[in-house]
Amino acid sequence: MKSVESKIVEAIKKISKGVLIFPEDFQELGTSEAVRLALHRLEKETSITRVAQGIYVRPKSNKYIGNLIPSAEEVAEAIAKRDRIRTLPTGSYALNALGLSTQIPMKIVLLTDGSPREIKVGKRTIKFKKTTPKNLSAKGKISKLVIQALKEIGINNQTTIEEERIIELLKKEDPKHIMHDIKLAPVWIQKIMKKAL
What we know:
Oligomer: single chain
Order of helices and strands: HEHEEEEHEHEEEHHHH
Number of helices: 8
């Protein structure tokens, strides 16, 4: 009879380095308490690294900077995938994702249809904020970010350069998606988006 820990060790060896590991990945190997304790021991032995509460990784290593831990963005993506929830970057995170800001936000705020919570990843925080289905119904990858980024900039606060950049980005979006997403935006944002069509 193999112990829960040795089964988990075997399973972890099959997971590529850099891929996030959740206790739920091993639920068929033992009780949630046994899995939690095994992961805690493996972290103490440094076989895995704890990225955030209940999230681990077999870190990739770099000869110059040592262990590479997944970014807060990668953690947010992995949680969304695990929980099968939709998320949408907002605020300064949306601005950064579009390249309208070079500042890397310390707090990532994501609108979600999942449960609201806050997770610390190193010095950064991921906040999942509950929102209405309407806010998550935008189809375009770029247009949904544009709506959130412009909301962050605020009405009449965008510079000509920002507006030109937004229009340029929207031109890479499927026009069908823009047509759909325009209806979800405030009127002043609709005016800017229409310039891309």
